[in-house]
Amino acid sequence: MSVVLVVNSGSSSLKYQLIDMSAERTLASGLIERIGDAQGQGVITHKAGDEKVVREAAVANHDAAFDEMLRNFAEHGPSLDEFPPVAVGHRVVQGGRRFFGPAVVTDKVEQDIEELIPLAPLHNGPNLAGIQGAKHAFGSIPHVAVFDTAFHSTLSDASSLYAIDRAVAEEYRIRRYGAHGTSHKFVAEATAEYLERPIEELKTIVLHVGNGASACAVDGGRSVETSMGMTPLEGLVMGTRSGDIDPAALFHLHRKAGYDIAMLDDLLNRRSGLLGLTGTNDLRDVIARIEAGDEVAETGLEVYVHRLRHYLGSYLVALGGVDVIAWTAGVGENSPEVRARTLRGMEWLGIEIDEARNSERGEGIRVISTDASKVKVLIVPTNEELEIARQTLEATGITA
Ligand code: ADP
């Protein structure tokens, strides 16, 4: 039995999961929040089996977060002596044009991740801090970096170059890298397996719609279009991110209202999307307000859905048809309203939603299209941690 520890290290949080890969079963998971909090109030959650513990402690930095994680395993199990990880898999957001698949961490790999920080300032630094903290805690086993961008390295120039001065773009590495690749890959593969069809034969559109959201067109298992761009800001309307916007709107805000870079960054990344449109970034609240007759909430959801339909239409053309549409992540898995509104009136394309199947709550992969629908529409719960663990074993050559 091979056990893999998966680590997702953000600027102020550390998520982890211990997975038994022989059964692809999660043994424990946890979350350490508010790392580096000025008041020293970190929140630590650990789940093992049916037991969930929450405690508070000061967590000064990522090294300290790993100490807390080890303490969780020692006090609440499972014991790492009994289930010793054979490798650690790390989520890394930006792999640029250097990493087209998982990479066993070496000094050179760490250096490359560091050099890519300017392309993902909010993510690659904390990801690297996580790798370094984990190496202190688990020195003797391999560490593997699994990149969010890697799955999209198959994008053509036509879909990944921006139409700006080529020399400027090359010097500053400005192009579409995409994101959520680990999830899109997992969902596309799980879909093919569920339908018992070879992935090589399938044209799939994956709609990963959560707080962050992106669409991906997958042709024969390869990503050919994706909606996030150089950074995870482009594309769909998200919880707090604007998605697509005319860049000239920013020039205008700068000239007319004195917005500087930090203010624009804050506006587009943290105060836009559903939050900007409606005042709340949680779709459940938006739906509740619509049901109570709130027109601002209704218009906000219309903008949100309009953008989804825009990308869907574009990907139907890019793929030359579609066999499967797969919904995943917080909204995609849980919101019948968004799914129904996005796919309405597409019977002429062979896309037919079954209202009862769409409204029913459920677990696992399930079909929500009618039996007659030419295009199958599925809900496919994503599992990025499992995908990272799989790729970690693949990169190290260790068997499950
Ligand atoms: P992240 O991108 O942070 O991983 P998630 O995929 O967890 O986000 O998605 C979180 C979002 O999913 C929430 O903000 C909420 O809008 C939405 N969501 C979760 N549950 C439901 C539900 N039952 N109905 C509608 N939306 C939901």
From TrEMBL:
Q: Please indicate if the UniProt record lists ATP-binding as a keyword.
A: yes
Q: Which residues bind ATP?
A: 15, 208-212, 282-284, 330-334
Per UniProt, the keywords (alphabetical) are: ATP-binding, Cytoplasm, Kinase, Magnesium, Metal-binding, Nucleotide-binding, Transferase
Q: Which reaction does it catalyse?
A: acetate + ATP = acetyl phosphate + ADP
Q: What is its main location?
A: cytoplasm
Q: What is its EC number?
A: 2.7.2.1
Catalytic residues? 148
Give the UniProt record's GO annotations in the biological process aspect.
Answer: acetate metabolic process; acetyl-CoA biosynthetic process
Q: How is the cofactor bound?
A: Mg(2+). Can also accept Mn(2+).
| Positions annotated to bind Mg(2+) | 8, 384
Kinase is among the record's keywords: yes
| Alphabetized InterPro entries for the sequence | Ac/propionate_kinase, Aliphatic_acid_kin_short-chain, Aliphatic_acid_kinase_CS, ATPase_NBD
Q: Which HAMAP family match?
A: Acetate_kinase
| Role, per record | Catalyzes the formation of acetyl phosphate from acetate and ATP. Can also catalyze the reverse reaction.
Name assigned to this protein: Acetate kinase
Q: Which gene encodes it?
A: ackA
